[in-house]
Known about the structure:
alpha+beta; 2 domains; four-stranded antiparallel β-sheet; 4 strands; globular
Amino acid sequence: GSRRRLEAEPLHSLYDILFIQCVEPELARGGPVFLTDYPAFIPCLAAENPPDGSSFYRTRARWELYAGGVELANCYTEERSPQAVRDFFDGESRRKAGARVPHPADGSFAGTCARLPPCSGVAMGADRLVMLLSGRKTIEGVLPFPPDIPGGF
């Protein structure tokens, strides 16, 4: 038989694969579901939850709302540590080093985060909500603009 070589993948990439292949399909079976306290190894700007002694792994203050197997909302508590913010953007720069369009980090942003009061925000996909409410199976039928614009923005 042929053998496949398993390439080394960052832990967050393996998590994404398992989540998309194993968890998301199950989310379509019931009613609305809130997923909370995401693993801390997933790169994002959500603040890390303080250890509470009840868990052996670190988590981030982040939640997502799924309905009908579709992610409708994403919320997290903002990271305010300048070093954590710098580390995040340094990691993003490394991951996207080969991208066609470079995304340099804004060096002043990390310092600005330190001056924020404790805060959070939520992003809700209105197009996804309309898709679910209208019974559509794909989002293309509810978008007010073509999903693939030649040349980009």
